Amino acid sequence: MTNRSTLTRGTDTLTRDALTVLQPGFTGTSAPDWLLRRLGEGLASVGLFGRNIATPEQLAALTAQLRAERGDVLVAIDEEGGDVTRLEVRTGSSFPGNHALGAVDDAALTRSVAAELGRRLAECGVNLNWAPSADVNANPDNPVIGVRSFGADTTLVARHTAAYVEGLQSAGVAACTKHFPGHGDTAVDSHHDVPRIDVDLDVLHARDLAPFRAAIAAGSRAVMSAHILVPALDPEYPATLSRRILTGLLREEFGYEGLIVTDGMEMKAISGTYGIERGSVLAIAAGADAICVGGGLADDDTVLRLRDALVGAVRSGELPEERLADAAERVRALSKWTAASGRGGAGAVERDPEVGLVAARRAVTVTRGEQAAPVTGPVHVAAFSPVANIAVGDETPWGVAAELERLLPGTTTGSYTGPDAGPAVLAAAGERRVVAVVRDEHRHPWMGRALDDLLGARPDTVVVEMGVPRAAPRGALHIATYGAARVCGVAAAEAITRG
Fold first, then answer.
1. What positions carry a catalytic annotation?
2. Closest CA to 175 of 213, 221, 208
């Protein structure tokens, strides 16, 4: 343990280091005074969410405001494209998500999509993206990953994870590959509880860990830990708090030297079991370098609580001062990389504004049934809406209605849920042909029953699956989009009207 006289002399350094390892959020579309003040005191990163973004111009002004206070600040965002978008939270994404890219299985296309997304982020002053998800969607009932995964095949996920990392970083935006050691084989959402993955080491290495090795080989500048319990690796602590997983496996066995970022510490898997202060101390001690917080707790009090918890843990001897200093140094090293890479920035990547739509069109799979007559007149679009998971949120529009209303004037639309969804759609549709839009039919029995009702009464119904297409295709036309991004809706509407 470091002696107290050294700590007394180094209080300013210790406090700065404690602030440096935090990645907090805030509310509003301009930086609050408290955030600017903390940047002056040592805070080195800021996390942005949909609530902070109105337009690209506003976002660029916000990041310029942050940089005026600290020129090398890391500005991070959760911009996966597809269903999880912050840049286009109110309109839906211009890019399909990972599952659609995996369905196309063209690594060059994935690289191009990630490069264009990175170019747009860099243009707005964002230099760290909490993406891509490298999770292998081994459990089709997974409530939180699903279309955020490139797929269920490990080699495909590894190939596209590497391509995504390369594309994003070609624009000077650091990739943060997540959710280590792999969140794909879970039936629980870590926003709500601690998921557990009970498989042996051989399966973990062959299936879940391989994409992370590929990301590291591709030069991923950051890796995000998952709040999951993997007893084969550590029977006691979830990965975010596990020295065996973060230091033993990721650092020592995999030889990873970049930044290790935690998933959001206010997620119930951590906050409901350890609390965010204790959880943050344990995470840094385990080998994490940056504490992500701010999706829910987004105020100065949270920053000060975590700063003081880290300083207090060093003073009590619970957290080695060298570990905190090492973590802070890794944050600064990433800041230097983004500053050097950002000089080319958005200009280093050729503009390709249509690549997202091109990818979404290529991903669409159409299965024709016996009643596959072309759709030529106005239809009734019935969106069967499950509750969105927290990562996706419920403020981002999805579906095909907006585009079909444009292509087929007079089209009507409604949102349906629960056991009476089928009869309610039939009553609302009248004489119009029905386009039923679902997400993960295989995970929601009520959706399957609603489609049974619809197809029994109206066999010419068109079914659009915008989730993971595990259920057997049915309907006059069955269109799988592999995600619910805005461009996936455009591509589906085009397929419907082509017949």
1. 191, 263
2. 221
